[in-house]
Each structure stands twice: as structure tokens, then as C-alpha cells.
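Appendix B, record 7
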Amino acid sequence: MNILTNAPNLFTDKRVLVTGGTGSLGKTLLRRILTGEFGRPEAVIVFSRDEAKQHEMRLAFQQLSTATEEVIYSDYQKLLHFRIGDVRNYASISAALRGIDVVFNAAALKQVPSCEYFPHEAVSTNIEGAENIVRAIESMRLPVETVVGISTDKACKPVNVMGMTKAIQERIFINANIRAPDTRFVCVRYGNVLASRGSVIPLFHDQIQSGRPVTITTQDMTRFLLSLDQAVDTIIDAYRIAVKGDILIPRVPSSKIINIVKALICERNIKIEEVGIRPGEKIHEILVSEDEVYRTVKRENYYVIRSILPELSDDSTITQALNGEYSSCSDLMNLEETRKVLVDNKLTIEDKPDFARAFG
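C-alpha cells (predicted):
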């Protein structure tokens, strides 16, 4: 992954809006921005509809009100702002976008089963929310410099509602480069994030520590292994290097879920039970489909899917980077390699990670 050594002033004097900023990704993104490693922004605004989570986040940052290793700026109160609102409400998001330079759209309904049972709710947040952002910038001629849409592997060859809505969200943001040409719209697409809220590793930890059987869906299931900090690197690198209409894809290792479980169990006498695939769930994560291969290039440590729209893509600049789809089953790590990734990310039982505090 890119370590962003050449990005010390990316956000200097910028006003940054993070929609859905109280989620796992939003928290990590904010922490990274507030360290100052990308420059000192003028303001960072957390936009979400959950006042309780905003209150908790505000209190957490107040405890870091003096200069520390995690937060450089003791006057963070002048930088970090909280705004109650909802991307599903046009008036709400359009008001929040005034005076903003950079938007990271992390607002989403992302749990696969929830989206299957409440598909219109997923449409309202993932599709209509994105359209509201674009419409506000277009209709009010807002001088927003860049919008980074945060997508998912499930948007590639979608088989579930969550993926279908995210696939359309990608197209809304890509098309927005034509509708609002003074703003750069780009996307990132990646798989499940290690230990984020709703992911399986916290569940596995709880089952192992309580002595219960560890439940997996199927022995064949594979997943990319991406940490929250790597997800943030991808998002910030998209802001740094992506061209209008690009979808940035991180190149990360993958493993069978069964090997993740075995690496966590180690020598413990814990049973493993198969419980079957959840509604809408995929066996493998696919980040680049065979149809997207022909417009996928390498840029630094990433694959980049160029826009399908001819107005945004010059075919003469494309040197195809892949011969086939990029899937979590393509180049799997073995058990020991999987264990090393978990150890490096301090996600073993011995590390006793506090998921509730760290990933909220």
C-alpha cells in the first residue's frame, strides 16, 4: 500500500466534509486527518444523522484536547465540527455542502442482510443520497473541488441489493463529472475491512473467548484482508492521484475465511460449524470484473478502472493491467501467511483488541 510520503499538504487550508463520519471508516479517516500528516485543514465536518454517535465522538476527541501522538492540534475544537443531517434529505446535504472543498461520502447502508430485507432503504441512502450530493453541487454551482465516493466489492457483478445500489452510486458519481464539470468525482472500491463494525472478526473473537463454536458460512468462502488504515490510504490516495471518473482499487492479500478462523483459534479446543450463506452473500469478493479488465490500468500500487463514458476516458492511454477478473480467490494466502497478517494488525486473541472502542 502507498504510505503517502509525498502528501504532506493535501488538505492544508481545505474544508473537508465526511458524510457518515461516525462510522468505523469515518472515525479512522478523521483520526488520520487530525494527525496533520496531510497538512492542516481549515475545518473537518462530520455529517451524520446519529446524534448519540456524534456526542460520543465529540467526547472522545475532548479527551485528546492537548497535543498527543494521535492528535497534533491542541486547538482541534477549531478544526472539528459536527453537523446533524442526512444525505437522503436534499435540503440537509445541500446546506452542509456550502463552503466545502472536499467530500468523502462514507454514508451508506452496508449490511448485506439488512439491505435484502429493506431494499428501498438501501436505495434511499446509497443511490438517492449520492444523487442529492451531485444535484446540490450542480444546481447551486458549488465550488466543491473533489468528491470521493466510497464503494464496495459488492458493486462488481452485484448479486445483492447492497451491491446493486452501490453499483448505481458509482455510475452516479462518474456521470457527475459531465453534469458538474468543475468538480472532480472519483470512487474507491474495496472489500470487507478487517474488524470494522459488522465484520466477522469481532464475532469470531467473541465466540472463541466464550468457548462457543465458531460459525462460518462455507469452507469455500474467501475475503480480501484490508485494514482500516489501508482503507483510509486508498481513499486519500484517490483524492491525490485519481483522474475524473476513476475507480481506485487497492491491491491487497486475500485468504479463505476458514484459515482466518484457524489462525484465531490456534491450539484452542474450539469447534467450527458451517451455518450456510446469508441472504445475498457472495462466496468470493470481486474487485474488477472481466468486463472491466479492458479499461483497468496500474497506477502506483493500485488498479484503476477508467470510466466507461467516452467523454471521460481516452482509450489510447490505457495499457491493460489484468488478464482476468481480480477476485479474492485468485491468489490466496496460506494459513501461516494469514496468521501473520492478523498478527501484524494486532487482531489475534492474544492482542485483545477493544473493537467497541477502536471501531465503534
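Remarks on this record: Confidence is low (pLDDT under 50) at residues 66-74, 356-360. DSSP finds eleven helices and 15 strands in the chain.
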